[in-house]
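=== RUN LOG ===
request id: a7f3
mode: sequence -> structure
chains: 1
length: 181
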Amino acid sequence: MSDELIDSSRQKMFSAVSVFKNDLATLRTGRATPALVENVEVLAYGTKMPLIQLGTIHAPDSGTILITPFDVNNIDAIVKSLQEANLGLTPLADNNVIRINIPAMTLERRNEFIKLLKTKVEGAKVMVRQVRRETMEDIAKQAENEDEVKRLEKILQELTDEMVAEIEVLGENKEKELLTV
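=== RESULT ===
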């Protein structure tokens, strides 16, 4: 029963790290990457849909993103959604494709993104620690004796430390990416 708590916590912590990784992909680094725009919500067919479901997105070079909609009737809706997404990008409709040129980031903009990154790193750590706290409460309620409580808390703390370390490494790597011109 108690080992199931640890397994459940591990899954929740992995989910928190996964959410963090996806969040990092949306941070601009000065290089074109489809992840910058693929989750932008577009009003198409009477409902909001992620852009990735409406067309192919690729980066032919480090300064350009090309979006080829599956249905050319959605081009205007995609352009409008990209402008409203406030990503600091300017989409241009060009025949049946949408071209986004990624401008070089200024040092000031890079520093803003680093501050945002640090906030996201701290948020991810909080999510992992929240899972730990909830599991500790469950362990205290369900454990049969004090030795089992200590054993499980030690395992849980090691798992938490491992996840926090992974988050920090991911954050440091993204910071290096942001500082690379």
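=== NOTES ===
The chain has a mean pLDDT of 88.
The beta strands are 41-44, 47-50, 55-61, 64-69, 91-94, 97-101.
=== END ===
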